[in-house]
Model the fold of this input.
Amino acid sequence: MSTHTGVGASAINRGQLVDAIRRAGQVSRVELVHRMGSNAATVSTAVRSLIDDGLVVEVGRAASTGGKPAVLLSLVPDSRFALGVSLDHSGISYVVANLGGAVVGRLRRRGAGADTPAAVVERIGTELTSLVTHVGVDPALLLGLGVVSPGPITGSNGMALTPPAMQSWRDFPLAESLEASTGLSVLVENDASAAIVGEYWSGTAGASRTFAALYMGTGIGAGFMVDGIVYRGASGNTGEIGHICIDLDGLPCWCGARGCVETVAAPTALVAAARSRGLPMPGLSVVEDFAALARLSQAGDPVAQELVTRSARAVAAAAQSLANMIDVDLIVLTGPSFTSAGALYLPVIQAHLDTTFFARDCHRVEVVLSPNAADAAAIGAAALVLQSELAPHMAAGAAIDNRGSRRLARQRLQRA
Ligand SMILES: [Zn+2]
Done:
């Protein structure tokens, strides 16, 4: 995780402190001073406030190394919870995550589809309530709701530019509406940026500090962590690798450019191409139809294989640009569409990087498939809430935390 040297007593980040304890399992104050790059008095004060709030407990003493054995600290995993929602045209994923980083409940329901945004927001409220009730979490311990959406995020609204299937969401006040419907503090994040937080939070990235999450839902995006910090750019809209141009005179893309990776490689484009070539598509949602296409490809259908291979080559080219730009050592394939097709894409992307990554003589870029591909964005959204609620001094728009999040709108959760 990120540590900031010279962190003063007034600036110590509770979110980072909790993260350090979470990752350590059991840890002494002395070790935390070392990990936080802080001083003993600052850490001691911050730990005291976490203990007072019930987030941390003393669990015993370390083995003696001569002097008085140090007291060990541990998180109380079920002391706080957050909800994460990944909203897409094709499906809505819900997770309940606890402070310890565990997903204690999950649910997947049909996507936004053609419903009005207001109707979908109302349904999200109902489905969240039933999930929280089913899991048995005390609502008073909920810190808030993180929501991720596929379009670019802006201002106090949700999405400014929206994918074609979600045009009715353009400029819809997503955060405000969800706050009104759930009574929770709401944080909005781009799906790929949330996904990389989810991968970090779930431990997929291991010890890697500079890695990327290549996210495929109905479109393609990426989130990246550089030296332990999620890079978010000027507005939280980084990693749009689906809109790297691979053909100057190519097909027009919904973003306004031509020949983007998404025009030949995104599940939306592939499902449309498959249908026009006469392949049987169930006509359910893009992600489900794309899964059907992946199964046809695996079963040996030549047209399906041609479409998937072409897509995988385009995604590999995008991954190459990503790796060359940021010099990552790991790329995690994540997002709902990789749950069905990850095994088809991974070898193509890995082989391409092995032969084209610019700095391949220095190190390899390893490509792995996320074990949480379907839920990574929702897990990341919940993790962002836990982080930001624990770091109340974090300014809007400031990427000062290793999971720096832009808080678009919030209201304090009314606790009993
Ligand atoms: Zn584009």
